[in-house]
Amino acid sequence: MFTGIVEAVGEITALQPSGGDLRLRVKTNDLDLGDVALGDSIATNGVCLTVVELPGDGYWADVSVETLDNTTLRSWKVGVPVNLEKALTPQTRLGGHMVSGHVDGVGEVVSRETDARSERFRIKAPAELARYIAHKGSITVDGTSLTVNAVDGDEFELNIVPHTIEKTVIGHYQPGTKVNLEVDVIARYLERLLLGDKAADPASGSGIDLAFLAEHGFYRG
What are the structural domains, with CATH classification, of the chain? Predict the structure, then answer.
């Protein structure tokens, strides 16, 4: 688990195709690896990766086809900057929100505008994730825990302060940039809990619609 508070910005320094998937090397720059051991997890642009080698100034990790198909990782190249966060410990301050490092989908930056000293971004999410994104709720973008300022269908807005622009890869975002998205895990569990016994029905899908909410007393049309 992670908090979504980025600890350092690293850099991809090698990408090696291996048996149909990929092995990559990350230079960690300011990230302290003194307490990192083989098998530990590091969130890399929001993707939970397992450390398989520690060459001293970074780490190597293996990336499965599943991860390549469901994140931005397939488009990474040598030199790409990445947000880094080590897995949390019982002593870690939970400054963001609970983040699993399991990317739910890939979004796209629609617009970027200056707003006083901040930057305002509009991001389009995959349609299937829209129901989990709420005004003033939390979302993880490339491993950064952020607050949703506004929601419009499958698009949402973020207001990014100068510190976050400086300390994460968000400063590199431009319209068209693809980003890893992880929705708040509480929203996913709540959806399953509301289904009750219907959750065991493979044909139910999410099962949450206005008719379902009305039937269970959560909505009045």
Answer: 8-86 (2.40.30.20), 105-186 (2.40.30.20), 187-221 (no CATH)
